[in-house]
Design goal:
The protein is mainly α. The protein has a single domain, classed as MetI-like (MetI-like fold). The chain is 82% helix and 0% strand. It contains nine helices and no strands. The chain is elongated and about 75 Å long.
Length: 227
């Protein structure tokens, strides 16, 4: 008995024909979902910090309101949240099926998580540094963008890295309900058609993607670390 190289090549080509388009769909979802969730979550995280008691823009009521909204949103399981947001997806992109439609719930689901980890990183900034900037007449925007964010940059980079990895996991879950990408391929072929090889291929690709994202994030964080 001998190994049939031609058959192996055809088999590999079939796997690649399934997995490669799914990788592109996943990257598309993850990129834009990360972009929108970081914009929303970063703004929320900054406001949660500066409006807290004793900080540079103390607003207890606003802080409590935003904190409650973030906590409520975070408490809803993603698979339920994406179904709840189907009407919003249809309103914004005109459909609830496909990679583009999934960007809406992915962004909204990840934003509260981003807000909390950004908040945690910004709270680690030494208050003495903030106080010193205020003493020389720095405005609130200057304190945020010239003091707090630069001081917390290594931690913030790791926060974004964690966000990307989480959204990658969310996108795989979203594939189970028509979002496309690697999750969709894993469910349709690996689970419903019992093609274990396709399932294994999608898992391997996801593992590689996570490792690469984490490695790049760690490298950038170390580069910006002034210590």
């Amino acid at each position: 008995m001998f190994f049939d190289f031609e058959q192996a090549k055809l088999y590999l080509a079939e796997i690649l024909d399934l997995v490669l388009p799914a990788i592109l769909e996943t990257l598309y979802m993850v990129f834009f979902s990360t972009l929108f969730s970081v914009i929303l979550g970063f703004a929320l995280g900054v406001i949660l910090v500066i409006t807290d008691k004793g900080h540079i823009w103390e607003k207890p009521r606003l802080n409590n309101l935003l904190g409650s909204i973030v906590n409520i949103t975070r408490s809803i399981p993603f698979i339920i949240l994406i179904i709840m947001l189907f009407p919003l997806s249809r309103l914004i992109v005109g459909t609830t099926i496909g990679s583009t439609a999934a960007i809406v719930p992915l962004s909204i689901a990840a934003a509260p998580f981003v807000a909390r980890i950004i908040e945690s990183s910004l709270r680690e900034v030494d208050w003495g540094v903030i106080e010193a900037s205020l003493s020389v007449g720095a405005t609130i925007p200057q304190v945020i963008f010239r003091v707090m964010i630069p001081e917390a940059m290594p931690s913030l980079i790791l926060d974004v890295t964690t966000t990307i990895i989480n959204i990658l996991g969310y996108s795989a879950m979203a594939g189970a309900i028509g979002a496309g990408g690697l999750g969709d391929v894993a469910v349709r072929y690996g689970y419903q058609r019992f093609q274990t090889d396709v399932l294994i291929a999608t898992v391997i690709v996801l593992i590689i993607m996570v490792q690469l994202i984490q490695a790049v994030g760690n490298s950038l964080s170390k580069r910006f670390d002034k210590r």
